[in-house]
Batch of 4 targets.
Target 1
Amino acid sequence: MSIKLTLTEDETEILIDALDADMEGYLEAAKEARGNTRREEMKTFTEAAERIGALKARLEALLGE
């Protein structure tokens, strides 16, 4: 499925900032899970952070950042 959106530059920057904060949360959760030897949770949180990072990079590319 594909969704088409029209966003202003400001809206895109808001999404980038929100994704950055979300990604940091997942990375921190992965770090905590690693410290508590919860491997499955660490893997899940790391994958989520990677997917968020990829989406963030796509949005940044649209803005030419």
Target 2
Amino acid sequence: MALSYKARRRWSLVILLVGLPLYIAFAWWITSLLPDLPVLVELLVFIVLGVAWTIPVRKVFYGVGKEDPDA
């Protein structure tokens, strides 16, 4: 079942205000468990973790910044 425009806007707000800080804390914890890595490898880990959160929620954010298509 597809989410309505209003539902996508609400869920995107919840994801940004609650989910993203939780994910940042999780990523911070994961990176603290890693041993000292070379700078480029560490940069690659941060880039992967920075993009990884968007993959499962991309459909929620799709089209949220545009006008309501039902209006």
Target 3
Amino acid sequence: MKKQSFRSTRLDRLGSAIFAEVAQWKQEAKSKGLTIINLDIGSPDQPPVEELRSALANASLRSDTYRYPGTEGTLAFRQTVAKWFQHRFGVELDPHEEVLSLMGTQDGLAHLPLAISDPGDAALLPDPGYPVYGAGLAVAGVEAIPLPLLEENGYLPDFEAIPQSIWDKVKFMILNYPSNPLSATADLAFFERAVHTARKHGVLLVHDNAYSEMAFDGQRPPSVLEIPGAFDIAIEFHSLSKSYHLAGTRLGFAVGNREVLSSLRALKNNIDFGVFLGAQEAGIAALEMDIRDSKPIARVYESRRDVFVKALHEQGWNVPTPSATMFLWARVPEGWSSRAFSQSLLTSTGVASIPGNAFGSLGEGYVRLAMVEPEHVLLEAAQRIGGFIRTAQPE
């Protein structure tokens, strides 16, 4: 009998298995009797507000909520997205052609290359950047070309430094501001340059704007669709997971270029039946609540940021102050690699983080910490980290 492998070689191209590794490091730390402080995965630690939980609960009790929902999302959800987008960004959307519901932005970002590309195509991906970008390309057989994001440039790409030979082979590029893992932000002037660059080179601009509602110090991150002409060459992804603590409902949406959204909708029509209707009703309630009385969840993370950064500085680790997201991106102390620092920190103190090179080669030398614990826990984490960096020796 012939021996077969039941594992696709495609899986080997999906990138870092760091999250599984971190889980193993946690087990090692637990075996030593350490209490784990989970600052690795960006999963909100708080529930959605009662109004949203009630909307979801009430919808779940109705008998008509359990039919197949349809891939594109209910018209009511899409209309509410359009209403919110006008309120938030001053941009008009056609809810029939320019809005598509998603099972979270990760769903759309992972499937997009399959919908708009062919094997052998290429795309520019931020380095460092969110791992699902590369995973989607690997599944689709699309070549990933790193788009360098450097600290000295404010983690914004230098479009002029990209050779024409690269632009000639690229079908689309992905941008992400506010950024995971970098916590960097970008203004309208940057997006004007990005749209101009995309139009000049005939590439699709894909903007992951999942953290648009999680900026600090009075910032209100823009949408790329605010730029004139952006609808011709751009789409944008948004998420309700972080902004409204609805991570488990798996709800997001894509907006923008009609042709691209039509292609993504056509793919998803063949592989899923859309988002649970109850989740969509919770999403409607969240967006309407924001329109009625905007109270960004960012305030929670801004307060945590202030407490955590101050505590780390007092412990001797001069990390930068993030301007957005739930993440802190910082250089590891001298002499450490990203992976060695993250692993040793966890197995020695119980504080879990993600090594920066899990987000791309330019992430080496950095570490990402997610501020997804209450302030008193973050203070405890800072104390443990301080003790570690003062006594531990680089491996």
Target 4
Amino acid sequence: MLTLLIVFAASFFVAHVLLLFTSFGKKGFLKTRYLWSHITLWITGLLACIITLLFAGKSVSGVIDVFDTPMKSALLIVLSLVLSLVAHTVVRTMVLPKYNRAV
């Protein structure tokens, strides 16, 4: 079960990266693809939270054992949301203005 959840989390993170980078194409800025890149990041955070809730304290992994309380596990979701907000701010203020001038 742990391996399956880790594979799902890693797959969603890879999908996040691919969707993020392909949001900027020859056809311009693809808003729907960019939104899905954020959604896949949030799902990754949720899966990481589930992994830590299920397996923390069972000596499966030292990293997972760090998140030994539900509050610490919930911080993974908060982290993914904050990371998404920071990335969105960077894209809106720094990347898109340069991208729009180049296109």
